[in-house]
Amino acid sequence: MSKSPPPFTAVAAVTALALFAACARPAPAPRPPPAPQLRVAASFDYAPFSRASESGAYEGLDVVVMTRLAGDLGLELAWTRLAWPELTAATAAARFDVAVGGVTMRAERALVGRYTRPYAVTAAIPVVPRAQATRYPSLRALDRPAVRLGVNAGGHLQRVAQRRFPRAALQPIADNRIFAALEAEQVDAVVTDTAELYAYAQHSPRPLVALTPLTHDHKAYLLPAERGPLAARIDTWLRERESDGWLPAQRARFLGAAAALDAATAAREAVAALVRLRLDLMADVAGTKRAAGLPIEDRAQEARVRERVGAAVPSAPMRAAAVYAELIEMAKALQRAAPASGAPGPALDLLRAALGRIDDVLCAELERLPAAPAAAWRETLETTLAGVAVAPAALDRLATALARPA
Q1: 304-362 pLDDT per residue, tens
Q2: CA 37 to chain centre
C-alpha cells in the first residue's frame, strides 16, 4: 500500500513562495567597470603649484587643474608623491601618467618624456631679506664663497643657481624648505621663482627683496614618452580651458595678476617655449654627429622632418613650411657653433625621437595658431630665446614666418 504525500503545511507554503520570489526577482544590474585611472605625480612641496597642507590635503594650481581634467576626461584621479631628484628616472620608467607641480620645460627631460603645451610662465629669481639688501645690491654680490645660497634640491632652480653663482656656497635643501632656512638664518639668500615668491608673500610678514630675474621659464606637464595619445588629449583640454577663460582665472588666483596671459599670448608663449626646447638639444646633436663622423647637414633627415610637418599641419601648410625652414637653419647654425671638444651626446635615434615628440606639440600649436603681428612674435621669441646663440636676423625671419597667414 503506497504512502500518502505529506500535508502541504503553512511553513511549506511560505518556503515555496520565498523560493518563487527569489527565482522571479531580476538579477542585480552589473556594476559598471571602474573608470581608468589618471596617475598623477607631484612633489607637494612647491607652492603655488602643489603642496600638502598641515591637515594632509593637497592644494595648489595643479591640484585644481588635474582634478577638473580627470573629471572632464572621465578618469579616476590617483595621486602619488615624487621627489624632484627622482623625476627623470621615474619618467623614463613610466611610474606615472603625468607629472605636475611646477615642472619646468628642460631639454634633458625631453629625452625621456614628452611635455604638454606650457600653461604658466615664471622666472628664477634670487631673494634676500630686506634687512640684508644693502649687502647684496647685485647678482655679483651673491656670487662669493662667503654667501650661503639656499635652493631646492634636485630641481630646475638648483641647476640655475649652479650655473649663475658658481662661487657661492650653494646649499641644496630637501623638500624645498628654502624659506624656512632663510627665516632661521641658515642661509643668506635663496634662489626661488616668481610664482613661489608670490605664494610665500601671501602669508609671510617677513619683507624680502627680489633681485634681477635670471631666466624666463615655462611650466608644463611631463608625461612618459609613450603617453602620446594622453598628452594630445591634455593639450586639447588645455587649449579649450585657455579659450573659455577658466585657466586664466586659475592662473590669476594662484600665481597673481602679474602672471596673467590671454589665450593668444599663451599660444605665442607655447610656440616659443617649444622652439627653445628644440634648439636646446642641438649641442647634443652636434656632439653625437661629430663622435660618429657624421656631417652636420643631413638633407634626407631634413626632408623627413618637412614631410612629417606637412602632414601634421594640414590647415596651415605654407606657414608650417616657412617656420620649419627657419628652425632647420637655426638648428644647423647652433650645431656648427657647438664646441668641438664637447662630449658626445645621447644616441642620434634618441635625440631624433625627442625632437619628434617636441614637434608633435609644436605642429598642433601651428595648426591652431591665433593671428598675431610679427612684432609680437619677435618680442616673445627674443625673451624666450635669451642666451641662445641665434642671430637677430634669424629671429626676424622666424617671427615673420609665424605671423604669415595659413
Answers
A1: 999 999 999 999 999 999 999 999 999 999 999 998 876 777 999 999 999 999 999 99
A2: 20
CA nearest neighbour of 47 among 212, 175, 221, 189: 175
Q: Tell me the backbone φ, ψ of residue 78, rounded to 5 degrees.
A: -130, 110
Q: Return d(Cα 244, Cα 266) in angstroms, integer.
A: 13
Does residue 158 register a pLDDT over 50?
A: yes
- β-pairing verdict for 58-59 and 50-52: antiparallel
pTM passes above 0.85: yes
Integer Cα distance of 211 and 44 in angstroms: 26
DSSP states of 293-329? T--S--HHHHHHHHHHHHHH-TTSHHHHHHHHHHHHH
> What sign does the dihedral 348-351-352-353 (CA atoms) show?
positive
User: 9-23, 36-50, 92-106, 123-137: which range is least confident on average?
Assistant: 9-23
> What grid cell was written down for 30?
552589473
Opening angle at CA 259, ends 79 and 68, nearest 5 = 30
User: Which residue, chain included where needed, has cell 610656440?
Assistant: 271
